[in-house]
Amino acid sequence: MSITTYSSKKVSITVAGQPITGVAEDSFVICEFTSDAFTKKTGADGEVTRSANPDQSGTITIKLMASSESNAYLSALALADKNTLLGTVPVMIKDNNGTDLVEGNECWITKQPKQEYGKEVGDREWKFEVSFLNMFAGGNF
């Protein structure tokens, strides 16, 4: 049995080719498909049929510290998209110490995150919709 090592510092996030930095402390990226890959239907006699779902859409949520300079970049993207309707961008998340990879070529920010202020720095949560999400869960070295 071998030992593998995960390091959050080895996870890279890029939006439209721009590295995103200043991630939140805990779960800073969440990626998921919108729909299950298959649905099943069971007949009255117990026969089961599964149907492949063609929906490949999903979401990528990126959590940044409120102090992250990347918030300004993402705000500019969101505003540009709202004004021009041309704001779909590629997003990629890669574990550079393993083989995990998430990517989408046509992604857009659904809305700017809520802003909260308190005694300590908070987080900003950026949610991207993805028209065609590719995910590969491969593990670490």
Q: What does it look like?
A:
- The protein has 141 residues and is mainly beta.
- It has a domain at 20-34 and 55-136.
- It is built from one helix and ten strands; from the N terminus they run ββββββαββββ.
- The protein has one helix at 70-84; strands at residues 11-15, 18-19, 29-33, 38-42, 48-52, 58-65, 89-95, 101-109, 123-130, 133-136.
- The strands form two sheets. Strands 1, 2, 3, 6, 7, 8, 9 and 10 form an eight-stranded antiparallel β-sheet that branches.
- A hairpin with a 5-residue loop joins β7 (89-95) and β8.
- The chain is globular, with a radius of gyration of 18 Å.
- It starts with 10 loop residues before the first strand and ends in a 5-residue tail after the last strand.
- The model has no long low-confidence stretch (mean pLDDT 96).
How does the SSE layout of this entry go?
Elements: E1 11-15, E2 18-19, E3 29-33, E4 38-42, E5 48-52, E6 58-65, H1 70-84, E7 89-95, E8 101-109, E9 123-130, E10 133-136
Antiparallel strand pairs: 1-2, 1-7, 3-6, 4-5, 6-9, 7-8, 8-9, 8-10
Strand content is 35-45%
Q: How large, in whole angstroms, is the Cα Rg?
A: 18 Å
Query: Count of helical segments?
Result: 1
Instruction: Tell me about the largest β-sheet.
Output: 8 strands, antiparallel
Helix/strand-derived class? mainly beta
The residue ranges in which pLDDT falls below 50 over 5 or more consecutive positions are none
**Tally of extended strands?**
10
Shape call: globular
What is the share of helical residues?
10-25%
The succession of helices and strands, N to C, reads EEEEEEHEEEE
Distance between the termini: 12 Å
What value does the average pLDDT take? 96
